[in-house]
Amino acid sequence: MDRRILWVPGVAVAGALALGGCAENGEPTLTLPSVAVTPTAVTTTVPPSAADTALAASTQALGTTSYKTTMTIGDAVSVTGQIDPAKETGDTTTRLTGANGGDITIQTRLIGTDAWAKVTGLGEALPAGWMHLDTQKASGTDNFTISPGQTDPAKAAKFIAASADVQQTGPNGFSGTVDLTKVAGVTGLGSVTLGNGTSQKVPFTATTDAQGRLSNLTVDLQKVSPEAAGPLKIDYTDYGTPVTVQPPAPAEVTEAPEELYNPFG
């Protein structure tokens, strides 16, 4: 089994597109679709509308205020977490459900410059128990749900930065499209197949709370990848709620293997 392919803590979308099957030893595997993302042509810059501005502003609190979040893709993927970006503290749990019932669970904890991950459901592909991450290697990548400098596990701000055709549909509602080529690599979207002339833009809807903070983002992945388990749904709640995370007991921790930092290399 190639454990570099199997380790996808921050690549939830890739898992949702094709999670299932077993290796000969009976351990669950992730079969990732081939990458076929074509860069978009350069277009004239259009000044942002009031709707664009309001939607972009809705993600600012994700970098300054504590919150809870959930992300789902049908029944195949779920991510839950609590985050305090100001303190760079949080924890997440990612569950990937295979068509054959082979489930994978990935837990991640971040406390300042220390981060840990624990994976169950892969047999002997990874060490048992908690693994301490080298945050210098983990920081600035999209391979992990949370790491120093990257505390939003769902990366909603990156989706909204790639949005176009944004319209306000109500006092707290928005709609538009997301160009997936601009978020390739974010939560595994580099593994979405966009060939055969299929449009690279997919529709989304978003809502904000009474303070203008993002509360929901739903992206219709099935428009470009019918095999996707369902739409990508991200919810943000409990802004301002204190977040407390405890480190794993030292006796339960080993250093993470090198494969974790380059799962597709």
What can you tell me about this protein's structure?
- Helices cover 11% and strands 34% of the residues.
- By secondary structure, it is mostly beta strands.
- It has a single domain (3-253), classed as outer membrane lipoprotein receptor (LolB), chain A.
- The longest helix is centred in the first third of the chain and has 8 residues, at 50-57.
- It is globular, with a radius of gyration of 18 Å.
- This is Lipoprotein.
- It comes from Catenuloplanes atrovinosus.
Key phrases:
single chain; 265 residues; mainly beta; outer membrane lipoprotein receptor (LolB), chain A; two-stranded antiparallel ribbon; 5 helices; 14 strands; Lipoprotein
How many DSSP H or I helices? 5
User: What is the CATH-assigned architecture?
Assistant: Clam
Helix content: 10-25%
| Structural class label | mainly beta
Average pLDDT works out at: 76
Task: Describe the structure concisely for a colleague.
The chain is mainly β and 265 residues long.
What's the SSE blueprint?
Elements: H1 3-6, H2 12-17, E1 19-22, E2 28-30, H3 50-57, E3 67-73, E4 77-84, E5 89-97, E6 103-111, E7 114-120, E8 130-133, H4 135-138, H5 156-161, E9 163-170, E10 173-179, E11 201-208, E12 214-219, E13 232-237, E14 253-255
Parallel strand pairs: 8-14
Antiparallel strand pairs: 1-2, 3-4, 3-13, 4-5, 5-6, 6-7, 7-8, 9-10, 10-11, 11-12, 12-13
